[in-house]
Structure formats: C-alpha cells, structure tokens
Design a protein that fits this description.
349 residues, alpha/beta, TIM Barrel, five-stranded parallel β-sheet, 11 helices, 13% strand, hydrolase activity, acting on ester bonds
Length: 349
C-alpha cells in the first residue's frame, strides 16, 4: 500500500476514470450516481455495446465541458455498417470519443455456445460477450486487425475525436499504425541552435518595431487562427489504455515530430494484475516515471460500476502520487486537468 495511505483522499477535487466497461454489467449502472468517482469514460468493445453506452449517456452523460454543470442523471454486421453506426452516435453525442479499439496478438475467438454454457449463464452480465466461454485456437490475422484499426482511426480524425486504444503483445505494431496516420504531417523539429538563432532574430525584430509606427496592413491575429483549417488525417488525441509496454517502448511516442497528443492511462486490473495489497511492481514504477506529468491518466478498466470501481481508482491514484512525489491534492488536480484535456481537448472546466 502506498505511503500516503493514511492521508484522506480528496474525492471532492474530481476524480476521473479514463477507461471502464460498466455496460458489461448493466445491473450495476444504477449505482453510478452514488459513486465517488466523478466522471467515467465508458468504452464499447463490440457492436451492441454502442447502443448500451448511448443509453447510459442519455441517463448519466456529460452535457457540457463545464463539470460544474454535470448531472449524474452474437451480432453480425458489415464493418461499413458498423462505421456508419459509430458515426451516427458520434454526431448525436458531440462530447463522445472512440474506444476502445486496438490490436491484440493474443486474442482468440471464443468457442460457440453449448447447452451447458447457456444453462450456466450469469444473468447479471450483459449478453454478447465471452461470458466465461472457453477460447478456441482461432486468432484474428494481424493485417486484418491493422486494417480495421486504421479505418476507426480515420473516422476519429475526420470527426476530430479522441481515441482510447489498447495494444496487447503488439506495441511495435500499434506504434507503426499510429505513425502511419501522421506520415507526411510531422511537426517541424527545431534544433537548439536554430531556436537560439530565431530568438535572437525575434529580439532584433522587436527592437526595430518599437522604433517604427505600426503598419496598418498587418493581418489581425484573428485572421490567422485558421478557422477553415484543413482536417488532419490523424486523431487529435490518443490514450494508450492500461499501457503494458515498457518505459523504453513508450519513449518512442515522445518523438517531438509526433503531432498527436499522447496520453497513458494505468490501472491496477491490468498493470498490477489486481494485486491491490502487494508492493508496486518495478515495471509500473518505471513506466510512471517515464510518462510526462501532463500525459498521465488513471482508469479502473473494471466491468462493473460501484464501490469496487472507486476503490481501484483511489488505489492507482495513490500509487502514482507516491511515485511522482505529488501530494494527493496536487496529484488529483493534475490528473483531472489531464482527463479534461484528453476527453474534451481543453483544460477548462
């Protein structure tokens, strides 16, 4: 347990779950208004999930970026139809994002339902998932996964939405797909020598402008804001959810030429293998240290809402604050700002 375990947890500052699946247990949804976690980024993992997430959004969803106004109030389909469905939900819910999507080399297709499986189904679980079925030996081809991911990322780019992605045993492949999205649109990287020269030239220009009358032909700043700017072929923001790569792998995302704003969310469920009582693993510590403060998020990745979700969120926040040497007050505020920027593209409440 982190050393800050005796310090009262500042729920009142606003704590946000960057990735969760409460629609997997729809019977748990009514507990959400009573939870201490303030905001939930609810994910879909299959086609029918989208309608379930939309139903939760109708009842409890965010209506404004200003969180002081928030109220806690088998499925065959052509992929082209699925994308149209996704687009429709994105248009209906302008503050929604795309997720979760990604690549998984270890994924295997579940076995078909058997009479015994049907008889032993858990009625509390939302139908359509694995629901305890055995896994078949059949996997999904990596090329096919990359093609599907690419189409979803293109939709995110077109709609200007953030994305929550996973990469299971596919960290290099995921980075390859993301880099392919912005190929030819990299940020211009200025060397230290060039930056110094530019600063000197700017100081000289400022000195000269102070001795001359202001030109009436200069464009106003508003004219240069680029309101009609061409849409980029890549999503504006991507969160690597429950990031399981190592610190060295993550550093590749910090390439200054990368124009996509990258976030990393961490969970006890995946990153600590549900070990809530043991010592924090060195790999987890190394990743937290390698992620810049403004890129960090926390998540539960839990499949049911309620007290357990709050418990896991508090636990991972405490661990990260200890590693980063933040007070709980400062850490919760930082993480809240990061979540708003990821979800909405702004730090404003």
């Amino acid at each position: 347990m982190p050393e800050n375990g005796d310090e009262a947890f500042p729920w009142d500052l606003g704590v946000f779950d960057a990735h969760c699946h409460p629609t997997d247990t729809m019977s748990s949804i009514p507990t959400m208004p009573a939870m201490r976690t303030k905001g939930f980024t609810v994910m879909a993992t299959r086609a029918q999930d989208q309608e379930l997430v939309a139903n939760v959004a109708e009842q409890y969803g965010v209506r404004s970026r200003d969180d002081s106004k928030w109220e806690k109030d088998e499925y065959p389909m052509p992929f082209s139809s699925f994308l149209l469905q996704t687009r429709g939900f994105l248009e209906k819910y302008p503050l929604s994002l795309i997720g979760e999507i990604g690549l998984d080399r270890s994924f295997r297709i579940p076995e078909p339902w058997t009479p015994d499986d049907e008889q032993n189904r858990d009625g509390d679980l939302t139908s359509g998932g694995r629901e305890g079925r055995r896994l078949s030996p059949w996997r999904v081809d990596s090329k096919h996964q990359k093609a599907i991911l690419g189409l979803q990322l293109q939709l995110a780019a077109e709609m200007g939405r953030a994305v929550s992605v996973h990469g299971v045993s596919a960290h290099g492949m995921l980075l390859e797909v993301i880099k392919g999205m912005y190929a030819g649109h990299e940020k211009k990287v200025v060397s230290r020598r060039q930056r110094k020269k530019m600063e000197q030239e700017a100081r000289g220009a400022n000195s000269e402008s102070q001795s001359q009358p202001e030109s009436t032909n200069d464009k106003s700043r508003n004219d240069d804001r680029g309101d009609g700017e061409e849409k980029k072929p890549y999503p504006p923001r991507i969160c690597l959810h429950s990031y399981s790569g190592d610190a060295a792998n993550f550093k590749q995302y910090l390439n200054p030429a990368n124009p996509i704003e990258i976030f990393v969310s961490l969970s006890t469920a995946i990153n600590l293998s549900d070990d809530l009582e043991g010592e924090t693993k060195k790999e987890f510590v190394d990743v937290v240290k390698s992620v810049p403060d403004h890129m960090l998020l926390v998540e539960s990745d839990l499949h049911t809402a309620g007290e357990e979700m709050d418990k896991r969120i508090e636990d991972v926040v405490r661990r990260i604050c200890k590693i980063k040497a933040w007070s709980l007050h400062d850490g919760v505020k930082r993480l809240g700002v990061n979540w708003r920027r990821f979800a909405f593209g702004t730090e404003q409440q």
